[in-house]
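Entry 12.
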Amino acid sequence: MKKLHRFILKSYLGPMFMTFFIVMFILLMQFLWKYIDDMVGKGLEFHVILELLLYASASLVPMALPLSTLLASLMTLGNLGENNELLAMKSAGISLPRIMSPLIIITTIITIGAFFFSNNILPYTNLKMSTLLWDVRNQRPELQIKVGVFNNDIEGYSIKIGDRDPQTSLMRNLLIYDHRSKEGNLAVTVADSGYMHITSDEAYMVVTLYNGYTYEEILESRAVRRNNSRKFPARKNKFDKQVVLLELKGFDFERSGEDLFKGSFHALNQSQLTHVSDSLSQVLETRKTAATKKLLEHTMFQNPFQLTRDSTVEVTHVFDKDSLYNALTPRFQKTIVSRALSAARTAKSSVSNTATEIHSRTKRMVRHTIEWHRKFSLSFACLVFFFIGAPLGAIIRKGGLGMPVVVSVLFFVVYYVISLTGEKFARELVWDPAAGMWIATLILLPLGVFLSYKATTDSVIMNADFYVNSVKKLATFGRNFKGLFKQKK
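Predicted 3D structure (tokens):
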């Protein structure tokens, strides 16, 4: 490897790693902002949160690589141009494509690596993240009993407190309903004050009550209740101090199996997506054929010989339905019209239900096709963004994190908006899935080719001094023309 190539790679890899981790941090903060409500107040352990963030980071890699490639290439060529190092290389007879050749090779390697990551590692991390996020969302929050509000977090009990001392944690005016029998409010405990604390193993809550009453309605037998001879026996207990042990169920974080999301489209690799799409396509065609046959045989044509008649036999007699209908009595005519309307409504309902089912199946199949194309489009976007950022950096000749960041974010926002729009149209069956997933890349690819051509020919289209000098020349020409016009006048 030549020293020049080593110098170019050294100048590129540093910004590449830096921008990659910056972009990953920003996208990870967006993930946290999106799911913060599902994680706060759940009492999750630190290793669970760390594991979720690790899986989320892996799922963000395909999105972070194109942006970091764009920003790193723009910064690298911009720094070389700003320090006149690019000019020195060109003065030595080295063309821009030759200068960029090691960067093109390393970007191609990144593109191929991004595809293998999306195809082999990303489905596994998506499966793990989906399962873990499901468990986190269904995790019951820590027991928090608010003042003046009934709390039903403890299974079988409904608890309400009137007031709580923030210093001593003494609660006043406690009301506890026992619903474990599932027969209504048969047992109610009222206490003047009390304390609550959870055992060290978090399996029980110990409630210590002072100065209260327990009202309990005795449940009579079913025979007595059926004969309407109930006497409604009840029991009232007064206590100065009472300790109640409430079992806590469902507050521990439980890990569920992965079978729930194993067949999801974002947890499948390319070969699995192809297999599932083919299977769904066959099922869809079978359903269409069955629906058409059912409509013809059982709804539109009640005659079982209608579809089996030999079409090669010459028709010698045409059945005149109108004359037969007119020959019937009004009562029979009304019956026939009623049956016809009923058959039409049945056919309409059948067609509507079948269309809804086919539409739902088609959308499900399209989601797998979209995911199949996403693995290619996001990976290829790295190469497209490189051919936008590198020539653009060579043209504007500005390095650092100022201008490159602004330009990179602008291009990425345009790409992201177009990509989301195309994906939405594909999901809604407006566009073909391939067109929806590749539209953003196909729009930006000609721009990359154009910028590469302009950078190779030393274009000044992005040089601010060029436009300033052009405006000055235009202003000077205007003044000279005005003076010449006055002289002639």
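Annotation: The two ends are 71 Å apart (CA to CA). Residues 157-247 form one domain.
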